[in-house]
Design brief:
five-stranded mixed β-sheet; Nucleotidyltransferase, domain 5; 40% helix; alpha/beta
Length: 358
């Protein structure tokens, strides 16, 4: 396959699926999401053990669209759990790969993005990048302070999704992002809700390890001592406790499913338990959005809801009614993450911006 514009392959692994896209410049040739069976993913002990599965999915997608790997000019992966970094694009290097493969800063499916991009790129000597990884850190100093001096707040979040949605919203407002005050709520398998103050995410909940609302899969904030005693009574290992809090809690823990489409269908059929738990989910998300409004002193230009959960009409409608007193609410259903990754890498390759070094 030949193109006058650079071919850019984007790999974005998530907790429940793998998003893949091919761009000629910034024009999408294909953009797909391959969903993985929950049992298949849970059979892997470590995230890195999923590399062969995810690589095969990526190669199958290219083959299905008659794309030769050798024709791709640039490879971009979703950034994973690394040390805190500024926003922007980074060339993938061995130090980054070592931290991701060893899970030095934690395990998450996004760790595979850089690993797969690097492996595929090196086969034909092509460049590989990540951009706006989940560890982008722009917090205000006051937002870093926790109640334990030895444990300052660290807040991995859906930086890529947040920044892409915020840029789109700023364009709608006809203002530069650097002059906007926004609240962005990414609502997927994980939930992160951030206060964007003049182009920086100055506060946000730790979406992976237990801050903020519960999610389709995660516990969210729970009483620390209560869980400590719960774990002792049941003899939970650190690994089991982590799995419980991050993969078997939230909607899955209560209802046995993380599929909001199925939940909304059960509610429509009159299931009261499903209705209560779903209302609690919406309620907790609304409270976190309210907290971010306080972080911005109530000066909010817009609230943006994005991610797979907002496709549910019941969820989006109820949440909108609870938070619209704060600021106008906008739902961005279309996925801008893949284009944002391609744009960041292309900007480096064409000399419009400079890649950062990890």
């Amino acid at each position: 396959m030949k193109s006058t514009a650079p071919l850019i392959f984007v790999i974005n692994p998530g907790s429940t699926g793998t998003k893949l896209a091919l761009f000629a410049g910034l024009k999408a040739i294909f953009d797909v999401e391959i969903e993985h069976r929950r049992k298949t993913i849970e059979a892997f002990v470590n995230v890195m053990d999923q590399a062969d599965l995810r690589r095969e999915v990526a190669l199958d997608a290219l083959a299905g669209h008659d794309v030769d790997l050798a024709d791709i000019d640039i490879f971009v992966g979703r950034g994973g759990l690394l040390r805190p970094v500024p926003s922007g694009a980074f060339r993938i290097n061995k130090r980054m790969l070592s931290d991701l493969k060893s899970a030095r800063f934690g395990q998450h499916a996004s760790n595979l993005g850089a690993v797969l991009a690097w492996e595929l790129a090196k086969l034909h000597g092509k460049p590989s990048f990540i951009a706006n990884p989940v560890v982008v850190d722009e917090l205000w100093p006051v937002a870093r302070v926790s109640g334990l001096p030895d444990l300052p707040r660290q807040c991995p979040f859906h930086a890529l999704s947040h920044k892409a949605a915020a840029a789109k919203m700023a364009a709608k407002l006809h203002k530069p992002y650097s002059r906007c005050n926004l609240i962005v709520a990414h609502l997927g398998g994980g939930v992160t809700i951030g206060a964007h103050h003049r182009g920086r995410v100055v506060d946000v909940n730790h979406g992976l390890y237990g801050e903020g609302p519960f999610t389709p899969e995660r516990s969210g904030g729970i009483c620390t001592l209560q869980f400590y005693r719960y774990g002792l009574e049941r003899g939970l290992s650190p690994e089991n406790a982590t799995a419980l809090l991050t993969r078997h809690a939230g909607l899955v823990g209560h209802l046995g499913t993380n599929d909001c489409r199925k939940i909304e269908a059960r509610i429509a059929a009159g299931n009261k338990k499903y209705a209560l738990i779903y209302d609690a989910f919406i309620y907790q998300v609304a409270k976190q959005i309210g907290a971010m409004a306080a972080a911005l002193s109530g000066k909010v230009d817009a609230i943006i809801l994005t991610g797979g959960v907002v496709r549910g009409k019941l969820f989006a409608g109820k949440l909108r009614r609870m938070i619209r007193f704060i600021a106008p609410v906008h739902v961005i259903v279309e996925n801008s993450e893949m284009l944002a990754l391609a744009d960041a890498a292309l900007s480096v390759v064409t000399g419009k911006s400079k890649a950062k070094v990890y």
